[in-house]
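Thread: Modeling a multi-component assembly for a lab meeting

Hi all, long-time lurker, first post. My supervisor asked me to bring a structural picture of a complex we are working on to next week's group meeting, and I have zero experience with this. I have the sequence lines for every component (250 residues in total). Could someone generate the structure of the whole assembly? Inputs are pasted exactly as I received them:
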Amino acid sequence: MQRTTTRAAVRAQHLTKTYGSGEATVHPLRRLSIEIPAGEFTAIMGPSGSGKSTLLHVLAGLDSADEGSVVLSAQGRDVELIGLSERELTLMRRRYIGFIFQAYNLVPAMTAQENILLPSSLGGPEPDRHYYEMVIDRLGLADRLDHRPFELSGGQQQRVAVARALVSKPAVIFADEPTGNLDSRSSAEVLGLLRAAVDEFGQTVVMVSHDANAAAQADRTVILSDGRVLETVAEPTAELLAAKMIGAAQ
Ligand SMILES: Nc1ncnc2c1ncn2[C@@H]1O[C@H](COP(=O)(O)OP(=O)(O)OP(=O)(O)O)[C@@H](O)[C@H]1O
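Re: Modeling a multi-component assembly
Sure thing. I ran the full set together rather than chain by chain. Output:
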């Protein structure tokens, strides 16, 4: 059988993270290794406390691991994130990483447009004008750009957060439960946009979700259990993922 090799956008090996000591010790990551293929949509599922958010934060350079390696491939070079200083990590995040939070994390005093352009105002890459306009148009935000977050619905706020993560064409977009606060219609919209970011804009997306329907939008779903990768499911269906999650919780 012919094998095609997919380029990894992020390659993490033997990640270990421990909190506390003695009887209170918690191990969110236990020598966990994972590869995130470039230009694809990867979902991460697992029971509560299995280490999903910790893993996402470590892969995105928002948190550090005690041991292991996280290599980010961006613009033809590989950068090891573990061991970088806080300042170096901040620069890496600004240049190469987009992050979408469950709680949107928009700046309340800024308009939608100012929020979307915030990473470049802070020294990140200047978005390409044509691409910026295409993203705004695709996300249906053209007539919302002068609004502040409190004037927008939850779904619209999350679309602004998606636009903020997309416009600088980061090497990887991470999303931590991006639909966790949304109703089913807004959830479907946001998931459709993440799917389009991969299919139409060639982006790499990694999303943590509890929701089998959301994770089924991905090209593959990695299931975590107790700080380790239990299984990777290619082209998952919601039914299969729901069944796997019952297994992972036992
Ligand atoms: N700052 C911290 N201090 C101590 N323990 C922590 C800290 N952050 C996470 N943990 C613990 O690490 C484990 C993994 O947490 P993590 O948030 O990564 O899990 P999760 O799979 O994302 O869970 P959930 O689905 O409930 O959000 C949990 O037992 C959690 O209580």
